[in-house]
Amino acid sequence: MARTAQAIADPPDPPPAEPRPQPVGEGPGEWFYADLGPIYVSNFDADSIIMCPHDYSYARDDSLDAQWRTGYDTRLCWKTCLIYKQISTAHRRLVPFIRPDAWTGFPILARSSGPPLKQFLAEHKSELYPQALVQSAACRVVDRCRPLVYQWALHALSALAFMHSHDVVCGDFSEDLCLLSALPSLSLSVVGFPFAGYRRLDHGGRYYEAEFYGGDAFSETGLGPKQGRCRPFPTRQFDLYQWACMVFRLMTSYFPGDRMGLNETEIGSLVSQKAWPVLEPEFMGDIIRKSWNGDYNSAEEIKRALISLVEEQGWSVNDGDDLQGFDATGLFQGSSEVLGFR
């Protein structure tokens, strides 16, 4: 993949002459951490978090000639600020942007009242999935938690629809980018925009491609065949494909293609042949399959299909993506403090 590091975002203004009052990650407030691959999100203060490249965490050097300033992953953080500013409109399913950090230019975002989704799934796997089936291909989220997954799926679609309406492709979309609010809602919001493709208005509307860092064979093959040595760039349709992969994992606890006795090449062949893993309709199997097929033209179209399914299951949807009357408090053992919420 050709990387136009200089173009995707510009360096910020020089840092202030005075030193930072306290190192990043050591401010007030509970510990918060989410690994996004080449970058991470950590606590900044009691009300905010900050996105940083891993290179910064090794030295925490704020000087103008710090080595991390020349790294490509640093540009992902600076790009995030640029896209937030360019969109300039808040959305409740997008983690709010506060400002760039004065010393680094890294984005400071509003702190969610709950944990990262990936952390929550790891901590509550025994309550989300039947333990007798947790290593089996037959594993499905327990019935009492299925409405929660419906709601997460709707929230993620709302975020993607908002991005796409602003000509932004999310890129490497997964549960890694998702944060939760506290009980009782456990609402989902998406961290923008480190891997995004976007049209840079101050560069005459030039489009800079989204990025995909790879991982499982199902997603790698879904991106499309390589062109020489290069992978294709992610598109809006690939965002919807990756959304479906995430929802499959939420519904089953495992990656699509796993637990079928197949190696990576054989999993890739499943995708090439559109021999999709089967999931029951109430677990969104039909919607997931159509998303993988590319049968939907937009996130909004998938939302309409999902709302119809949710209503068939006896729920009503408020404000476009909330299940009316849904309360997650009784789904998980322990108090909100035990669950790790503020």
UniProtKB/TrEMBL annotation:
Residues 11-22 have a biased composition (Pro residues). It comes from the Eukaryota. Residues 1-27 are annotated as: Disordered. Transmembrane segments: none annotated. Residues 1-10 have a biased composition (Low complexity). Gene3D superfamilies: Transferase(Phosphotransferase) domain 1 (1.10.510.10). This is Protein kinase domain-containing protein. It comes from Pestalotiopsis fici (strain W106-1 / CGMCC3.15140).
